[in-house]
């Protein structure tokens, strides 16, 4: 039974059989060809048996395994490796089917490989999940063909693996490495000139090109006969809270991810950078009620705690209650903090309804409202209108785009910082704003 389940015929064998059938049909009208047809059938049968013998004389002719990280990164390309070992004494042509989790909705993961005798072959591919949660990988199916490629033997390796998809820790590590090596400008993070310094003096050191000339210490310069400057230490231990709206306005998708998941990924990155800058990072998630609140701290495991909290976020996309958010912040956050509010406003009226609560938050904290450009509208704005319907569509798109710009102006008029950003640039624009506020000494 196991033999029958593992045995498959190749297209080459089917084509050969089809040709034989045709030959037998022709032999019915031309009897002299009947002998040739019988001989051909016998040869094909013999070759098939030889191919079967080659494939089945080894109990385990091929071995396969899958290698990946224990966790996958949401919205990023994750590396998956398939290791194929050929235990036959001849090269094997193989088709490999990896059973992927249903969330990917992919049926094209069929790989072809030629594995030399006694060697190992590695297949590499990437997966980009777009939802957090648990993913179940199934078996690895290897269809090995013999030298004559008439039959295939199926090997099935039960590599059942349950893997969790977390907020984009790959993106977090990329920004962290770039920050360490001073290469953040490569991804669009701007170098912001410091407009002032904290009152905490650190040391006197030699002047280097680019130092603020106002920090030159003339007395030390006279003693050393060389330009010396006062060095000041960045203000540390400021509280940075990411406020993530889980309401219906964050359900809109962009390149597979919802706006909520973009906000979650950006929150993980900015929290990690804030901790590297010696600030305290905290988190609040909310919709019609307050879902979670993680106090701002600088503990060694704070990034892990933030990541776990973000991973477990679930929502029904209800209407957001900003009044309850304000009450929670007023009651729970006593120290003046930087609040990075990730939300979305599609209309000016929608923003104006929440403006009283945003103004109340801004009176006690430094508030930055981060919301999203509608990239579909931008496509309509730049597309020429050729008929009446397209003229109306373009006019509506212009109205919505105008409202977005007006929201930014209204927030700024009330002393609230605002970022209007495409989803793909969310992380970079948030980091730029954080570094700008640090450079200006506002936090």
TrEMBL record:
Keywords: Membrane, Transmembrane, Transmembrane helix. The keyword Protease does not apply. The chain crosses the membrane at residues 12-33. The keyword Transmembrane helix applies. Residues 203-371 form the DUF58 domain. InterPro entries: DUF58, vWFA_dom_sf. The lineage of its organism: Bacteria, Pseudomonadati, Bacteroidota, Cytophagia, Cytophagales. This is DUF58 domain-containing protein. Pfam families: DUF58 (PF01882). It comes from the Bacteria.
């Amino acid at each position: 039974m196991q033999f029958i389940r593992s045995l498959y015929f190749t297209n080459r064998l089917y084509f050969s059989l089809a040709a034989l059938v045709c030959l037998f049909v022709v032999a019915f009208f031309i009897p002299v060809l009947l002998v040739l047809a019988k001989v051909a059938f016998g040869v094909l049968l013999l070759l098939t048996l030889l191919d079967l013998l080659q494939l089945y004389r080894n109990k385990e002719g091929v071995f396969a395994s899958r290698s990946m990280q224990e966790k996958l990164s949401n919205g990023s390309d994750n590396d998956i490796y398939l290791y194929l070992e050929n235990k036959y004494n001849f090269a094997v042509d193989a088709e490999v089917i990896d059973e992927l989790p249903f969330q990917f909705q992919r049926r094209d993961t069929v790989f072809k490989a030629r594995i030399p005798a006694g060697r190992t072959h590695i297949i590499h591919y990437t997966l980009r999940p777009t939802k957090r949660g648990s993913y179940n990988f199934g078996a690895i199916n290897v269809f090995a063909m013999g030298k004559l490629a008439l039959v295939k033997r199926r090997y099935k390796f039960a590599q059942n693996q349950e893997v969790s998809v977390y907020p984009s820790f790959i993106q977090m590590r990329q920004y962290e490495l770039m920050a360490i090596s001073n290469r953040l400008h490569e991804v669009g993070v701007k170098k912001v000139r410091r407009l002032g310094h904290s009152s905490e003096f650190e040391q006197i050191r030699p002047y280097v090109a680019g130092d603020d000339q106002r920090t030159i210490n003339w007395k030390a310069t006279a003693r050393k006969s060389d330009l010396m400057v006062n060095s000041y230490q960045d203000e540390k231990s400021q509280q940075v809270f990411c406020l993530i709206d889980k309401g219906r306005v964050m359900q809109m998708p962009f390149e597979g991810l919802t706006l909520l998941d973009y906000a979650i990924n950006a929150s993980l990155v900015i929290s990690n950078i804030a901790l590297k800058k010696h600030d305290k990072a905290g988190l609040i998630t909310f919709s019609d009620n307050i879902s979670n609140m993680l106090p701002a701290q600088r503990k060694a495991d704070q990034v892990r705690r933030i990541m776990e909290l973000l991973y477990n976020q679930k929502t029904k996309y209800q209407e957001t209650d900003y009044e309850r958010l304000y009450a929670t912040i007023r009651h729970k956050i006593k120290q003046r903090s930087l609040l990075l509010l990730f939300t979305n406003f599609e209309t000016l009226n929608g923003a104006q309804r929440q403006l009283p609560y945003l103004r109340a938050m801004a009176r006690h904290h430094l508030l930055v409202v981060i919301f999203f450009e509608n990239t579909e509208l931008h496509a309509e704005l730049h597309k020429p209108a050729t008929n009446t319907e397209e003229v109306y569509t373009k006019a509506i798109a212009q109205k919505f785009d105008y409202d977005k710009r007006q929201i930014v102006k209204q927030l700024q008029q009330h002393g609230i910082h605002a970022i209007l950003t495409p989803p793909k640039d969310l992380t970079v624009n948030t980091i730029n704003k954080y570094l700008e506020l640090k450079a200006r000494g506002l936090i």
